[in-house]
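Limitations
The structure tokens in this dataset are predictions for the assembled complex, not deposited experimental models. Users should treat interface geometry with appropriate caution, especially where small molecules or nucleic acid strands are included. An illustrative entry is reproduced here so readers can see what is and is not provided.
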Amino acid sequence: MSQQTRQQQPSQEPIDLQVDTSRPEPGTPEPGSELAASDRARRMITRLLRVAYPHETFPDGPYQRTAAAVQEAAGSNQADDRALARGLEGLDRAAGGDFLALDDGAAEALLRDRADEYFFRRIRSTAVVALYDDAEVWNLLGYEGASFDKGGYLHRGFDDLDWLPAARVDEYDGGRRVELVEDREAAR
Amino acid sequence: MSAVDESRARTHGSPIEHTEPVVVIIGSGAGGGTLAYELTAQGVPCVVLEAGPYLTGEDYVNDEWEAFNQMAWLDMRTTSGGWRVARDFPNLPAWIVKAVGGSTTHWSGATPRFMAHEFRARTTYGEVEGASLLDWPITLEELAPYYDRAERAMGSTHRHGRPALPANNNYTVFANGAERIGYRHYATGPYATNATPYDGRPASIQDGFNFQGDKNGSKWSTLVREIPRALATGRLDLRPNCQAVRISCAESGSVDAVEYLDARGDLHKQAARAVCVAGNSIESPRLLLMSASAQHPDGLANSSGQVGRNYMRHLTASAYAKFERPVRMHRGETMAGIIADEARHDTSRGFAGGFYMETLALGPAFLASFLEPGAWGREFTSWLDAYAHLAGMWIVGEDMPRPGNRITLNHDVLDQHGLPVPNVHFDDHPNDIAMRGYACSVADQLYGAVDALAVHHTPPYPSTHNLGTCRMSADPQDGVVDRWGRAHDVPNLYVSDGSQMTTGGAANPTLTIVALAIRQAEHLCEQMARGEL
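Predicted assembly:
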């Protein structure tokens, strides 16, 4: 298909840089597409995200915020909005009526079957940015965020690794580096 | 446009009339920024057209995505070819900066030189099928004095008496692994960030945000060194938020002006005595192609058909290793760790050319996006869960130039100015694939030697090293510019960035771009003194 024509805005979000160009063309809205913005959709996406990005240490907050980001991204584009609604309906159908009632293993299996479907790929492209661009998540993962205002890590552990010996920082002074090995004979 | 941009839309430096033919430099990064300083310091008035805003250390933020949105070149681009970037990041072929200082504002700082044989790639590697290798028309001996000047300007550690940076945690893992598998040529540099105060700038505080612009100003960039010094000469007119869209030609065959759009989208024309194009290896050929005319029907300076071809991006692989105990790779200088043992050319490894291994750290936000694009599930999240226990390295190696790897104008997709966007086509050469496979296996050995629990190989992400699309050649049929970076076809048109590089070598390119720019400035001054420009 032809490449989409789109103008870049200065405020563009990084997730938009990863949009798959094989996305369906926008069309007329269909009945039921408002599902994508509903509370039930929010709960389904939150559940989907927890299954797709399982972290035992994460509370619900980061997943809920990410679900909101997924809905917002879909809402900005009619085709995405419809794809999300259809995708969620498909999950409910495949679950025998209620995706939310499935255990982790069954829910993951349904997602595995749909790994290449557009709605799930689009969810992932938004979620992988939103979920991990979150101060609460950084804290849980042991990432310390902005450091300049605290004087960097110069006096806060940039070199506190203690389970390996200190390593040489200067260049090797025991002989010149071989730059060019003309052939196997020369290498001997 | 943001309020910050608005307040800075005015001219910086000393105004130069649009009708005054001066040296017009397009781009203010490693090539353009250096050239501006070297020329104005010698008394030559210059106009610098910079497409991006004038951001400084105060504007930078310690936040990966926020900084990315602030600094990165996000104008629409398209991709094609077999490289995975075309699938994972179809509109982001390159991760470079659109701001005063160009990509020197987000570069990491590693400054290895090219090796002598890398200037003779065609002779040394022989005929490589499917590659358009060429020898450079210059040698290491010719460039060596300019490498010295560039290293002094940039304050490279381990060079000219500059002390080494201390080891951070990521380096300690990296260097111990290197030592245990028999490597010897590892160190925390050469690296253009101050270990101790130098050149009016402070020592590193190890804040870990090199890629987001260095708020502390310890890292060399043209933003903190060359641009302010050029402005202080009173001979530079720096115009941020100005996108060059066309270089025009006089009947004589010389170029005589540059047309550009300002922040409001108004078109201007700056008269030129000479034009130096330094917009990075995607924008530079795009501008030449957009400057097609009756005299130059296939694009300016493109009688060879080589403009835009031979696009190179280095190996751009990375590896992350997971350990039982904490590493905290995000603390400290991102890339202050280099192993040079594998940089040699040695075909017994199954490929031509060589590679460096360099420490690399990303925050969770970027790591999640780049570790394995599209991945999900427990295997993926286990890497994020182990974040504080990860060490990382980047692998930068020579990739083969190929005529089909090229920048073209995509007339089906227009940018915000209504101009055709650049399309970046890239297919890996078998040599690149062989080198990447070998490099990943030695990364496994290195981290295995310090008891890594697992190692993940990250697919190449959007290119930070963009090279070769207006290459230097001895024969005008083989390339776009001569040994000085001057267009074979046009006597007063120069290319001053990494697109003039004939081959990519294994080394990070910034030092070489700066050395070439210092040398080109000297040449320009000589030409002007002789009345030939």
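Some entries come with short summary sentences. For this one: Chain A touches chain B through 77 residues (CB under 8 Å).
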